[in-house]
Amino acid sequence: MSDYIRIEKAMAYMSEHVSSQPSLEDVAAHVHLSPFHFHRMFCKWAGTTPKRFLQALTLERSKRMLKKEDSLMDVSLSMGLSGGSRLYDHFVKLEAVTPGEHRNGGHGVTIQYGVNETPFGKIFVAITPRGVCRIEFLGSRSADEILVDIGKDWPKASLVQNNNATNYVANVLFSRLKDGESNPLSLHVMGTNFQVAVWRALLRIPPGQLASYSQIANALGYPKASRAVGNAVGSNPVAMLIPCHRVIQKSGALGGYRWGSTKKEMIQAWEFLREEPIEL
């Protein structure tokens, strides 16, 4: 069992058993390690201690919801995102596929793809010359199934496996690069005008904070469109970079997530810890 798989299993175990507050010994036993070795491995790969991660899971999600209905449109991607906000230090720029690009089906475009390891499980990454077009967690679907979908969206594009190229994206996502080693990331996505507007709104939710479907609908000027917003969030083609995991129900309930509620909760807790460390 790889280190990454152990960390993913440990995070999932803590998320699923948060109400019973499992001890370090309990979680270490679940991944077949001694408490000492598990604690050291968790800190190395997750960037925090098991105790802090469990504390973050315990916090009420609603306390991290954006306070004002209009705040989504007021928050700049680069505002107040120093320190642990490595992803937004590198600025994420979203570009939609143009009508012309859609009509020619990706003719002359080479899409590189690969599977890379993360603390939350393996991810499938695909990139065009203009940016990242797909990120999905593997598990419910295989890489071959995702490739079929990409082939439908880009029927005339060339698909080339290149794990080294896509590993750069994973490294930026999880801050594995040293200062000065990375460049800004761009997204090259295909969606309706409304979907793209929702995805742009998601980029305005700061790491460690959450917004409801209704807040996003209000911010876009469509206060009765919460259901449509939910559909657009669920159609997000680029996991984590377009942070659909930061959207919850107005009540504070976790809400749905294409890759499972446990993974959504794990990512939320991890991001929160990077932004606002919890005192032990």
TrEMBL record:
PROSITE patterns: HTH_ARAC_FAMILY_2, MGMT
Biological processes per GO annotation: DNA repair; methylation
Matching InterPro entries: Homeodomain-like_sf, HTH_AraC, MethylDNA_cys_MeTrfase_AS, MethylDNA_cys_MeTrfase_DNA-bd, MethylDNA_cys_MeTrfase_DNAb, MGMT_N_sf, WH-like_DNA-bd_sf
CDD domains: ATase
One Pfam family hit: DNA_binding_1
Highest taxon of the lineage: Bacteria
UniProt keyword terms in alphabetical order: DNA damage, DNA repair, Methyltransferase, Transcription, Transcription regulation, Transferase
Enzyme class: transferase
EC number: 2.1.1.63
Family: Belongs to the MGMT family.
Protein name: methylated-DNA--[protein]-cysteine S-methyltransferase
Domain HTH araC/xylS-type: 8-105
